[in-house]
Write the structure tokens for this entry.
Amino acid sequence: GVAKLLHHPVLNWNYASEPEERTGLRAIHWPRGKVLGGSSSINGMLYVRGNPADFDGWADMGCPGWRFEDVLPYFKKSERFDGGDDEYRGRTGPMPVEGYRTILPITHRFVEAAKEAGFEFNPDLNGARRTGVGYSQMTRQGRWRGSTAATFLRQARGRQNLRIETNATAGRLMFDGSRCTGISYFQGESEHVVKASCEVILSAGAVNSPHLLQISGVGSPDHLRRIGVDVRHALEGVGGNLSDHYVTRVVHEVRDALTINDIAHGWRLGKAVAEFVLRAKGPLTFGVTTAQVFCRSKPDLEHPDLQLLFTPASYDPNVPLQRAQQSGVSVAICPVHPASRGTILAATSNPLDRPEIRPNYLGDDADMQVMKAGIAHARRIYGAQPLSRHSIRERDPGPDYPGEDGLEAFIREKGATLYHPVGTCKMGNDPGAVVDERLRVHGIENLRVADASIMPTLTTGNTNAPTIMIGEKASDMILEDNG
């Protein structure tokens, strides 16, 4: 199901990066949710908060009020989780979070193999300790996906002060001098304008928030003039500081183990449908990743810089999430704190034209070194007895990419996004910052940004949970700042 969402022509913007030399001159597919709930409506449903050091780092970079102790109450406020420690976990929020109701035995074998390879078991990767190997948690509402549309928005739909416009595309921000007064939007051939009596809150995501600012005249003057946009306010950082998780997958073909490849057809698929309908369990309730390891590329690091994501399935190496024919399992290698930075820049002044996405993956060689260390960790886990007894062979990278040079070529040629772009409207007070610690756009009155674009750096892991936290914290700041 997720595989179909990743290319859905109606529910997905289906962006693509510009071809870049360090990643084999490929246009890498960039899914983004074009639907209520945004990308939470098409994602892999993992719930990963990140490491406390991520948020302490934001505060140290000039974002007071964003230390872990400041944001933890908003993580707790947003979630409804039955388990873990009350000090860290929320019980009554709109977002239901839970572990997998059904776990295939091969996932247990992965956890056992990781423990044998030296990674300590962690019963709650969103609890007090954020390292080691543990089972994944997901945003799920009964049988169904727990998107922000199915949770937060559904609860708010009856409010008198909320109007939802669908089949609508944002046009430009409206201004009176340096004051943002509203926004235009398109529905079919018609253009409409909404005026704001108080504030405009921009939550269009790491791709579309900077794009909307740029076509509205807020950004780097050189860039704006180049695309024929009058400069409303010079703000060099808009669209810069792009950071994303670039991953490669170590894949093994396996025997004597049930995988999603085996379940996805024939009588087993019929059984899975029955489990889903009758018991709200079984493979049709799976997210993308069933277990994870947070670890270090070097032993002297204070905090983990790698996430290894286990999936009891293997995919076509040339088609994202298209299942392979042979039974297999995959470990995605994710350097969680990439040093490389890219850009998202409007290509033209037309609001309906797509921006140019240049992630600059592997632009800093340090990211390559962390990736190779992650592959070495994955190979140690595959080599441990609980998994090695099931392995037929390593398919990827495998023998087609021998030696150090081959491994680097594999990373460049087969890597892909993990769909976590952030940072393009960075929070802070330095020359590259776009918003302040209250998420107000520098130099513009009555305009805030509240989405993943404001993250100064990537968090340790998937970005859905931190983005929801940003929304919770933003809502409190809006109320406080407006009395």
About this structure: The mean pLDDT is 96.
